[in-house]
Amino acid sequence: MTTRRKFIKQVSVASGGILLPAPDFRNIFSPIKQKVVIIGAGFSGLAAAYKLKNKNVDVTILESRNRIGGRVFSHKMTDDLVIELGGEWVGNSHERIHALCGEMNLELFNNQFNTHLLYKGDYSPAGAWDYSEGWNTKLNKMLEDYADLTDKEKLVMDKMDWWRYLVNNGCDGRDLDIRELLDSTDFGESIRQVSSFAAIAEYAESSENNEMDLKIKGGNGMLAERLSEKIGKEKILLKHTVSRIVQDSKVKVYCENGKVFEADKIICTIPTFAMQKIDWHPGLPSEKVDALNELQYARINKHAMLFNQRFWKDESFDMITDQSPHYFYHGTKNQKSGQGVLISYSVGEKAAVIANQTDAWNAKMINETLQPHFGNVASQLKNQVNYYWGNDSYSKGAYALYGKDQWFRVRPILEESFLHTHFAGEHLADWQGFMEGAINTGEAAADMI
Ligand SMILES: Cc1cc2nc3c(=O)[nH]c(=O)nc-3n(C[C@H](O)[C@H](O)[C@H](O)COP(=O)(O)OP(=O)(O)OC[C@H]3O[C@@H](n4cnc5c(N)ncnc54)[C@H](O)[C@@H]3O)c2cc1C
User: Fold this and answer.
1) Low-confidence ranges of the chain (pLDDT < 70)
2) Full set of structural domains in the chain with CATH
């Protein structure tokens, strides 16, 4: 079977997409250390730096924010309870996170859920609802057939959106509504905007639970913390926003705060929105600029509510709804406390609307959605936190959203190295949209140095 991962590599090489770096023998034959500047201290930048440090390369990470981790953003709701405002689930198939957690003595605990459904005013507990039998059979066949898709068929699928593909394959009515609700949660926007190849590949190649399997004890940010200790905290400069890059025989990296860094190579791990804000000398190739302009990121809003008791009772509670709060899940599963956090996870237009409202509006809306099935929970609400990734200063979205005809056309262009700069980050990964993907691309860029 040609997996998504293998296929992408073949396409990229065939189209001349990847620039193979000229071998640099200095590290082998001379004691002079190669200097590398890494832009971004998210999982991609940290993974790249860790790998290079182990190869005795001199690395400096420049990071805009006042914290490491990037789109992995663990937040303490109370002294005992940690939630994730960014990347949440570690998948069973995510080998590099598993390996790094093992190496750093971090425990991964179960974070799987039993999905309840709230649809057209009817509440169905987990296990009491399903797709129609006909659609279930059809979907299973589609996922099975994925293994036999030819490369040409994959390219054709990429030119169609996932909603249209489902409709053309007989998905309709309630089945289609529920798929839209569930799958838009994965992609962060309506499935009318998602490449059908990107969707089928994700569902056919993922773990049984769609990679919503585990979480790092103490918060996913613990991995960023441990990596930074191994790299050396003094090598990671916070509040250093890169604003200008000059590349000739070497590179000069200028920061907004006036600091300038010289290096042999750059690994740029930042989201496409942030990349465009940098003044590149010479300028980025026009096809890369076009690709940067074309790619959108998904709008996701997380609204976390601390309740003084876990009225949802099931520790593995999550619920998909056709109402504004969209998707609820228990954000503090496996964390001992009488209190608990329920997170409302909304996507696309819903996320943009919710993000503009007050806490009082959100509390009212969420209570109205839950009340018919869980009673009035307003008096149990103790605290709320909201984070809207659509307005995040550096990414303007949660993760990249590959639309029609973008997976095979846009991604290889974004991936191409430019002079002394290699690119990495979630948006370039085969595990796109995942922490694993960020790590894979960071490590791959380090291998190219
Ligand atoms: C709401 C949400 C839910 C998610 N859910 C999951 C999930 O369940 N499972 C999963 O595996 N993944 C999930 N993800 C995705 C995952 O978090 C990302 O794929 C991953 O963290 C991206 O890492 P990165 O290193 O590529 O980018 P980032 O984490 O964005 O790192 C890039 C860094 O570059 C910095 N930067 C930007 N511009 C500059 C500049 N000019 N100079 C210096 N620094 C700069 C940024 O501040 C940032 O820290 C989710 C993400 C979000 C937001």
Assistant:
1) 1-31
2) 12-65+238-296+411-448 (3.50.50.60), 74-113+212-219+298-391 (3.90.660.10), 133-205 (no CATH)
